[in-house]
């Protein structure tokens, strides 16, 4: 542990931040690879809620995306782990006290955009346009 600290903790703050961002982005990409594949066109009926698709718990962002983009159950089941990965990266970042509020906001925006890049291929062209308009 001391060798790690000597090697990495004496780096300039900007380099540490950049390195952390690279590591977090890589973690998010790796965690989402199994779920990235395009879907067929979807039904135009009322989108099911995550609970109706067998996804336990309350997922406010997934529910909002389902309502806004009209996600199918198949899409919800593939997107939920991606949102969970995003949250598992973003929550610790919010508690990381070495960042200024501006740095936290910049990192959070990068994490959000990285997650959306992973979600985008799972959407139909119409849903992709809605997501692009939202971002």
Question: How would you portray this structure in words?
Answer:
This protein has helices at 2-8, 13-32, 60-69, 73-95, 101-119, 125-134. It has 135 residues and is mainly alpha-helical. The radius of gyration is 17 Å and the shape is elongated. The protein starts with a helix and ends with a helix. The model is unreliable at 35-44 (pLDDT under 50).
Order of helices and strands: HHHHHH
Instruction: Name the helicity range.
Output: 55-70%
| SS-based class | mainly alpha
Distance between the termini: 41 Å
Shape: elongated
Tell me, rounded to a whole number, the average pLDDT.
77
Largest sheet composition: none
Total of DSSP H or I helical runs spanning 4+ residues:
6
Please name the defining characteristics of this protein.
single chain, 135 residues, mainly alpha
Q: How are the elements arranged and paired?
A:
Layout: H1 2-8, H2 13-32, H3 60-69, H4 73-95, H5 101-119, H6 125-134
Helix pairs in contact: 2-4, 2-5, 4-5
Question: What's this, in brief?
Answer:
Helix content is 66%, strand content 0%. The protein has 135 residues and is an all-alpha fold.
